[in-house]
Write a structure and sequence with these properties.
This protein is α+β, with helices and mostly antiparallel strands. The chain has 3 helices and 5 strands. The chain has a 5-stranded mixed β-sheet, covered by helices on one side. Strand 3, helix 3 and strand 4 form a beta-alpha-beta unit. Helix 2 packs across helix 3.
Length: 157
């Protein structure tokens, strides 16, 4: 009998692991559920700092958005007790710390989008906005938030 392919299995196959949930640094929570939708707070990255177009390359930005998405998936996994309850990734919003003349925010955000499709397959295909920002907290390169449709509401904390 074939093994059921879970999002966690796919992450493991990609050589990626979810980290500990990052603590909130203000008066907010990392996830809010309403009905069958889960809205996340923005998650930045600890490894990549500076502006795209000045301090970081597009490739580094791609990796930063992938890491930001892994941080988001950690928060979602904690909230849902695993990633298998994700029915659909609805939308992601990516903020890219970039110079005034940098226009490749979509290429940076592909790191997050590509990861979601690898982890969730067709359920990971989503709407997306990628915008440049003059500055982000702690000079992080990328911050992302997302909206998910979830399978069942009874098992949510």
């Amino acid at each position: 009998m074939p093994t059921v392919q879970t999002p966690e299995n796919r992450l493991q196959e990609l050589g990626l692991t979810l980290s500990e949930v990052r603590p909130s640094v203000g008066n907010y929570v990392s996830c809010v559920r309403t009905g069958n939708l889960l809205f996340t707070a923005g998650q930045g990255v600890d490894q990549y700092h500076g502006k795209l177009g000045k301090d970081l390359t597009i490739e580094e930005g791609y990796k930063a958005s992938q890491q930001s998405m892994l941080n988001l998936l950690s928060a979602v996994s904690y909230e849902l007790d695993g990633l298998s309850k994700v029915k659909r990734v609805v939308k992601i919003l990516g903020f890219v710390n970039s110079t005034e003349d940098f226009t490749d925010q979509p290429k940076v955000m592909d790191g997050a989008s590509d990861l979601l499709v690898k982890v969730f397959g067709d359920k990971g295909k989503h709407g997306r906005s990628a915008v440049g920002m003059a500055q982000l907290p702690n000079n992080t390169a990328v911050e992302i938030e997302m909206v998910l449709e979830i399978e069942d509401e009874e098992d949510i904390r």
